[in-house]
Amino acid sequence: MIWLEMVKRDSISYSGLKKICCSSHIRYDRQILLPEIGNAGQELLAGARVLVVGAGGLGSPILLYLAAAGVGTIGIVDYDTVGWSNLNRQILYRESDIGHSKVSVAAQRVRELNSAINVVEHFGKLSSCDDEKKSRQTPMQEVSCSCSESGEGLPGNTICLDANGLVKGYD
Q1: Contact between 99 and 81 (Cβ < 8 Å)
Q2: Pairing of strands 118-123, 73-78
Q3: Tens of pLDDT along 9-55?
Q4: Once rounded to an integer, what is the mean pLDDT over residues 67-77?
Q5: CA–CA dist 85, 78 (Å, integer)
Q6: How far is residue 121's CA from residue 21's CA, in Å, rounded to a whole number?
Q7: Average pLDDT of 146-154?
Q8: Distance CA 122, CA 143 (A)
Q9: How many CB atoms neighbour CB 125 within 10 A?
C-alpha cells in the first residue's frame, strides 16, 4: 500500500524565482496552458528546490516527474547501489547500472531528461541532524520527499531538513 502525507510547516518563500526563457516556454507549453499553473506557476517550479531521500521504487518516478516538470534544483539522497532486484520496479535503472551508486545513476538520468535543472548528489543516509549538516551545500529545500523504506535514513526530527514541507511515501 502506498500512502502519501503532506506535512506543511511554514509558507514557502519564492524569492529565487527564475524567469522561463523561450525554449523553456515551448518545453513546458502543456503545463503553462493549465490555468492552475500558467507562466507564473512554471516560474515558481523553475525556482523550486526539492530534496528526494531515497532513489528506489518511489524515488525513481518522483525524480523523473520533478525533472520533467522543470523543478529548478533537485537533491538526491541514497546510500545504496543498483542491484538486480531493483530492476523490476525502480525505473531509473538498467542492467548496465548494476553495482553503481543509485545517486550517481539517478542524477545522470535526471540530467539527461532535463539539462536546464540543477541536480545535487548526496551519497549516504540522513540519520541525524549532524549528517544533515553535510547537505547544507545545497540551497535550503522547500519540499523534501522521503521515499526510503519505512522512512529509514530520514531524521526523526524533520526540521533538520530545513524544509517547509515534507512528503512521505512508503510502499
Answers
A1: yes
A2: parallel
A3: 333 343 444 555 656 678 899 999 999 999 999 999 999 998 888 89
A4: 94
A5: 16
A6: 26
A7: 58
A8: 16
A9: 18
